[in-house]
Amino acid sequence: MIKVVGVIGAGVMGIGVSQSLAQGGFQVKMIDVSEAALTKAKEEIYNNVRMQAFFDKTLAPDAPEKVLESIEFSTDYDLLHDADFVVENATEKWEIKKEIYPKLDAICPEHCVFAVNTSCISITRIGALTKRADRILGMHFMNPVPLKPMVEAIRGHYTTEETIQTARDLLHAMNKECIVVNDMPGFVSNRVLMLTINEAIFLIQDQVSTAEDVDTLFKTCFGHKSGPLETGDLIGLDTILYSIEALYEAYNDSKYRPCPLLKKMVDAGYLGRKSGKGFYEYQVS
User: Residue ranges of the 3-hydroxyacyl-CoA dehydrogenase NAD binding domain (predicted)?
Assistant: First the structure.
C-alpha cells in the first residue's frame, strides 16, 4: 500500500504533482537542490489550492493549510528512506536525470517504484541505471497537473504488470487515469506534439503568419483548446527545445531538427509563461 510518495523537483511539474498527491491523501516529500525553489513551490501550492477552493465550494476553507501539512520540503534525499513511490520531475536532460537514479536506488526501500516524468527520455535507459528496472516506468503528466485527468504511462523493457498496476492505483487516488504505451523516444504525445510546435515556430521564422493567427487556425479549424504556440509557451520553450533535441538525437532524423528561432528565443530567456515572455507576454508573480 502506498503511503509515502517522494517528488523530485520543485518546478512547475513537481509543484502540480505534489499538490495532486497531497489532495489524493498521500504523505509527500518534495526534494530539490534549491532552498529558494522549495520556498517558491510552497507558496505556489498554497496559492493554487486557495484559488481552487474559490471555485470549488466542496473544498474546506482550510484546504491550502491541510495540503501543505501533507508535504515536507527538503534538499535531503535521505528523507526518501521510507518512500513507497517516487515521481521524478527533473529538467528534461539526460545529463541531469542520470545522476538522480543511482542515488534514489541506494536510498529508497526495495519495494519502491520509480516513475520518470518525461516526455522523451527512454525508460529502459533510466532503468539500466538502477537495480530495479522492473519497478521503473514513465508517467508523463500533462500541465497543469491538477486539471489534467489523463497521464501517458510508459512501459520500459523490464517494467512488470505489477508496477503498472501500482501506478494505476496511485493515479486513481489522484482522480486520474492512464493510457499505457511502449518505450520509444517521445512515446505518443510528444513524438507528435513536439513536431507540431517546432514546425509552428518555423512558420513564424519564415514569416508565413503571426503567432496569433497560427493558434487561431488550430483552435477554430480543428477544435483545439490551445494552439501550438500557446501550448509551447505553457510547457516552456526551453523544455520544447530539450525535447526536440532529444528526439533528434534518438532518431537521427532531420524532421526533428530544432528551429533556429526556438534556439534563439531560449538563449534570450524567452521561455513562455514562466519567464513572462514567449510568443505572447504574461504577468509573472
Answer: 5-183
